[in-house]
Amino acid sequence: MADVIVIGGYMQFWYPDLPVWIPAFTSLAVLTILNFVAVRLFGELEFWFSLIKITAIILFILAGIYLIGTGFTSPNGVKASMSHLFETESMFPYGVTGFLAGFQIAIFAFVGIELVGTTAAETKDPHKSLPKAINSIPLRILLFYVGALVCIIAVTSWAKVSPEKS
After folding, report:
1. Among the listed residues 143, 144, 157, 146, the one whose alpha carbon sits nearest the alpha carbon of residue 67
2. Are 36 and 30 in contact (CB under 8 A)?
3. Where do the H-state alpha helices sit in the chain?
4. How far are the Cα atoms of 1, 35, 38, 74, 113 from residue 108, in angstroms, in the given order?
């Protein structure tokens, strides 16, 4: 449902006159149709959608590194720099309670991690592949979540992020 809301928000950004329910309903219908197809095709689609998502995140991080490395200055005058990570109040600007409030909202991104263990019966060699999959989770979190956040803050500066926009 979170994805459906985001899709509706993006479509409203690009097409302000479009009612939010149209892209939300359309994306929900597409997801429903995809769930009705054969399991093999669903698995194949899931693989390709995941690959697109991972590729987009990696390209996002590489673009951030490039912008930081070249000292890019945004239209609002913010120069990309790693020093933004250490600006006053960039870490825990609303204290620990603010962090915990945001953390509980963001934790939904990790829903499904427990499926690594439940899929052990589906693998050819669970004694080899399961520890490898479990041990790669912290690295993936650091790369995809922390890495992306570091790039966002370094390029935009915490102090210049508008709470009015996503």
Report:
1. 157
2. no
3. 2-14, 21-36, 39-70, 95-106, 115-118, 126-140, 147-156
4. 11, 21, 27, 31, 10
The span from the CA of 123 to the CA of 26, in Å, is 35
Query: Reduced to 3 states, what is the DSSP secondary structure of residue 133?
Result: helix
Contact (CB, 8 A) for 72 and 79: yes
Q: Can you read off the two tokens belonging to residue 34?
A: 């995809």
Summarize pLDDT for 15-64 with one digit per residue, the tens. Answer: 989 888 899 889 888 888 877 777 777 778 888 988 999 999 999 999 99
pTM: 0.68
Q: How far apart are CA 136 and CA 138, in angstroms?
A: 6
Pairwise CA distance, residues 55 & 82, whole Å: 23
Task: Report the interhelical angle of 2-14 vs 21-36 (nearest 10°).
Answer: 140
- Return the SS3 of 119: coil
pLDDT for 55 equals: 95
Which amino acid belongs to residue 85?
L
Q: How many angstroms separate the CA atoms of 153 and 83, rounded?
A: 9
Rounded (10°) angle between helices 21-36 and 39-70: 130
